[in-house]
User: What shape does this take?
Amino acid sequence: MSKKDDYQSHNEIVVPGEKIAIIEEFLPDETCFEEEGEIFSSLLGNIVTDRKKHKISIVPKKRYLQINVGDIGIGRVEFVKKQVASLNLHYVNNINIPLPVNAILHVSEASKHYVRNMYEVARPGDWLAVKIIRTSTPLSVGLVGSGLGVIIAFCNHCGQEIEYKRQDLLECPNCGLIQPRITSRNYGKPIIYKPVSHRDENKRQKNMGKIRR
Ligand SMILES: [Zn+2]
Assistant: This one.
């Protein structure tokens, strides 16, 4: 096999949480992660493999925005595993990002207190207020800080938007299921734009023009 065959850049785009290989084939680097013998992408980007070194990694799609440690982001949870959750950040410091940026939340950064697993923190579809804690790729975020945590959540059982019961506990008004989350003190307050209809989207775009620098 020639050297050229060892190193290969693949054209297809993978998304965070997508299975890209198994551990017998490749070793993941910091752009992907392993769980139960399977390797998943942490990023949106292209797969690059090195068969000789048995390495696999993701080259991320470019970011168009400067993001710094300590910035506050608002993101939607894309997937949840035991140890990590993947988010797409739609706002950073209250500015809408045209192309959402992927970020990883590790369970150890979800609370000041011990949290057993990520399923007690957030679920796919939830919206979170987060702080940027590392700007290396992938971006790392945490929930320790004032106002951080889940701000909108949807029922594990029926998908309905769920209501605040008490800190870190929510209740579904539809099916009554009580479920844990790491809640922000701003839970349920309209501090971000919710997913909007097409008509509202046009209005929002106009308003965004005013704050764009
Ligand atoms: Zn429900």
The pocket of zinc ion is lined by residues 155, 157-158, 160, 172, 174-175, 177 (CB under 6 Å). The longest strand covers residues 95-106.
